[in-house]
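Q: What structure does this chain adopt?
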Amino acid sequence: MPNKSASSRRQPAATDTKHLGGTLFAVGAFGGIAPTLLRFAIDLSQQRITVAAFNLSVLVGVALFGFLGGGMAAIWRESDLKKVFYIGLGLPSLLTVLSSSATAPKLVPSTIAYVQPGAKTQSFNEGTEQAQLRRIGSFGTSRLKVILPTEIGYANAVAIFTGPELGESEDIRSLGTDGEVVIPPYEGLSVRIVTPLAGSAALTVPWGNYQITEMKFTASKNAWAGFLYAIGAHTKAYDLVLESSKTTALPKPDHLPV
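A:
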């Protein structure tokens, strides 16, 4: 009889310990996923991402950080729940910073920032004589029209031009709501189309007076974009895939503008 009484007195203590361990793990796990939840809320409010853009892989990343945060809290066995939260926050936050730094876009010089179609900001007195004459004679007569899928849209979409005459610089031009942009008057150009949700590979784009090149894209969802986003990596939810490209002539004016 005394043995049963002693056993019954020990059971609540074991139960309390198990309950406390579960609470510590849960609080630490919440600390672990807090950076991802905060980033997600900020990006949603600023319309940099949409819920539909990500797949279930985002849950894998969130669960990973939750497990890491809860595991660190369980190891430390801290009783103060505020400290437990910060312990859980530590390792996932460090991994987020490392992942973000490792995948940050490389900064390169930009020759022209966000030029709308028709804007005349070219420098006509640079480069070879042939290049100068080409700039003077073009006046934005070579154009690119980009057709994007409806789920991508044209908000904050840009065309990024690179080529031998640009060196290590990039010529970044904002796409209008009609998806049209002036092609800079350089030979051997490549272009990448980039939006907050999607990006394309570098594609060769022809340049010539009084012509327009139309590029139509489809969107392919990146299977691991959600996971990469959850752990802090810079990634696009969609890959833009070129479906078709055609170049047609534009009508020529009777005389060049003066």
